[in-house]
Every structure is written in structure tokens, then in C-alpha cells.
Write a structure and sequence with these properties.
By secondary structure, the protein is mainly α. It has one domain. Helices cover 79% and strands 0% of the residues. The chain is flat and about 50 Å long. The N and C termini lie far apart (52 Å). Keywords: Capsid protein, Coiled coil, Virion. InterPro entries: Ferritin-like (IPR012347), Spore_coat_CotF-like (IPR012851). This is Spore coat protein F.
Length: 85
């Protein structure tokens, strides 16, 4: 298995783990367990970002180009209107 494939598999697995942690956190009523899950999620997010940076640097992953500022502002305005109304 090539390094690129390994990195992409780990990134996908980490993304799934972060989603699972988030779901568990929102469904957890035990504050100690909730705090532990939040810590684990935060650590997984940090690891994911470090892997992402490495993958991008090696050319294994190419991020989408930045959105035009006008599109960002329109989306922000639409979301704010939805939350207020």
C-alpha cells in the first residue's frame, strides 16, 4: 500500500471518528463521560489537521479553492436571516 493511500485512509477514519464522537457527545447526559468524549474529539481533530497539512504538502490532497468573498457574505447573510426569522 502506498503512503498516499495510507494517509487518505487515516484521514477518512479520523473524520468518521470525529463524527461519532460528536454524536456521542450530543447524546450523553453524564458530564464526566461527555468531557472525556470532548477531549478525545479535540485530539482527533488536531491529529486530522496535522495529517491534512502533511497530505497537502506532499500533494496527496488538494483543498478546494477559496470561495469568492461575495458568496461568503451572501451565505452568511442567508444564515443569519434564517436564525433570526
Amino acid at each position: 500500500m502506498k503512503e498516499r493511500d495510507i494517509v487518505n485512509d487515516i484521514l477518512a477514519g479520523t473524520k468518521a471518528s470525529i463524527g461519532s464522537y460528536t454524536t456521542a457527545i450530543t447524546e450523553c447526559s453524564n458530564q464526566q463521560l461527555r468531557s472525556t468524549l470532548q477531549t478525545l474529539r479535540n485530539e482527533a481533530e488536531q491529529m486530522q489537521y496535522q495529517l491534512y497539512q502533511m497530505a497537502e504538502q506532499k500533494g496527496y490532497y488538494k483543498a478546494a479553492p477559496p470561495a469568492p468573498q461575495g458568496d461568503i457574505q451572501t451565505t452568511k447573510t442567508d444564515l443569519q436571516s434564517t436564525l433570526q426569522g
